[in-house]
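lol so apparently i was supposed to do this last week
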Amino acid sequence: RKIGYAVVGLGSYATRQIMPNFGGCDHARLVALVSGTPSKLEKYGAEYGIPQTHRYSYAQFDRIRDNPDIDVVYVILPNSLHAEYTVRAAQAGKHVLCEKPMASSVAECRTMIAACHKAGTKLMIGYRSRFEPYNRLAIELARGGHVGPTRLITAEHGFPIKPDQWRLDKALSGGGSMMDIGIYSLNAARYLTGEEPVEVSAVESTDRADPRFRSVEDRISFVLRFPSGVQANCISSYSSAHNGYRVIGTQGWIGLEPATPYTGQTMTIRKDGVTAPRTLPPPVRNQFAAQLDHMAECVLTGATPVVAGEEGLADMRVIEAIYRSAAERRTVELTA
Ligand code: NAD
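anyway here it is w/ nicotinamide-adenine-dinucleotide bound
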């Protein structure tokens, strides 16, 4: 059988990237919608053939408990609402796929993990790049020492943010570029090494006179030191346009630029003085469908998602340390 998903929050990412991709899934299907806007429930309900009985407002959300067609709740709301809806979904007995960043704080992440554990439901975070072929190959090559043992990683993610949106309101976003886009640099450094950083040092630059940055940060550069000795130099930005990373070893480097967009990943490898592109055949399922199918397969088989709640928590621990390092202008140690 196909696992039934309820999508919560009918914003840009849900309606443009996620909902259209259920069509490419083998094990997942869209069965319910949750929104505060009746006209969106009407529009997308009609478009995806979701009956009235499977359309919910936020006030009606807890009634999903009585709908056996819903197996998984996919939370695609502003960041500060992730914890509340994850906990309520778990209490309704549903598995949860929650967008990145997992929440606004380590404390919220722990509450979410505990709620799903108590309910006996699975929790996965929407780290779609783990289902994207070039990123998967980069992980394999990096960890396999293709260009020699990794010594350095550089990772950059940024875009010039448009004004007047929830991402620029700390109460809804939990933070600025680091929470939204810098998290891709951090997550990549962690998945390319397979290690957890032990030390972080960060520098922030934000023009507080820019109306976009009244409550959240613009740019942060951060350096992560890993137990094996790998150093990752990372950038997060809300005012410059870049997306990529390089894994640099003793014999050359593996580059992905861009690395984490919705499409168009491009890989270049330089080894022993020779630079060459590396191309893969188009995947059978894109990263969005593969992500949806992975959670569905975990529900069907009882397996744990490769990007479970603990992954989101691990990133959030480092993000809090990055903020502390930047604020206190010192290196912060991360203990196990
Ligand atoms: P969006 O603004 O387009 O959508 C957010 C939705 O939440 C809107 O429909 C809005 O009406 C609704 N909402 C409900 N309560 C709200 C409230 N109190 N205030 C504001 N909006 C409220 O945002 P988005 O770009 O779709 O992002 C949603 C989530 O998805 C975020 O956590 C974001 O980080 C994540 N996201 C992930 C990716 C990815 O590639 N994995 C890409 C984009 C967004």
